[in-house]
Amino acid sequence: MMIQNDTFILSKRGWLPSILVAAFFLFFTMTTLHLFQFVSGALLIALLLIYRNPERTTTINEANSILSSVDGVVLGVEDTLIDEKMMKKVTVLNGLWDVSMLRAPFDGIVEGYQIRHGVSLPLSNPLSETLNEKAVLSFRSVSGDEIFIEHMSDQSCFSIEIEAQSEQKMKEGCRYGFLAKGRTILYLPYNAIISIYPGSNVRAGESVIGQFA
Description:
Distance between the termini: 28 Å
Shape: elongated
Number of strands: 14
CATH superfamily of the largest domain: Glucose Permease (Domain IIA)
CATH architecture of the largest domain: Distorted Sandwich
Helix content: 10-25%
CATH class of the largest domain: Mainly Beta
Oligomer: single chain
Radius of gyration: 18 Å
Strand order of the largest sheet: 9-5-6-7-11-3-2-13
């Protein structure tokens, strides 16, 4: 089953809160309550930024390319051992004002995913690893290569949302979820060729972070 893609300029999950805040803004504007007008106007702008949903395309159409699933800045690229298997670990930090939509890294399927509902402590807090809200997904490409993606929230009042099902087919760049602010870790095969480095800025569904060997 192919995912139902959300292609409006504003994500559908942002319609209701934006309409409600816009209604308050109009009410306070008509009643000349300037302080409340300013607060509601600022909140409306913030919501429109957080829930913006731009179209993305990449000029790289190679079948073995791996795109970033999230907007943000690369914090680290390193080797790591997962279940006695060496993998490449790419860590990306997604800020509140980055685009929040999560996108498929290549053509393939979602093999499965898990969500742990929890709190949203600062990532610097040691308890965040065990208490923060987290989603882990497994993607497999049409050629059989598999990667794992972990999304964790960071001091945000917005929940992580995953709109996917096991064995769901996805096209490269297809939207599959929402992360307002947090950390994303992509676990790639050890022989993958990485094309980014710490400090790189990446854009979901557009920036190539590596290639399958």
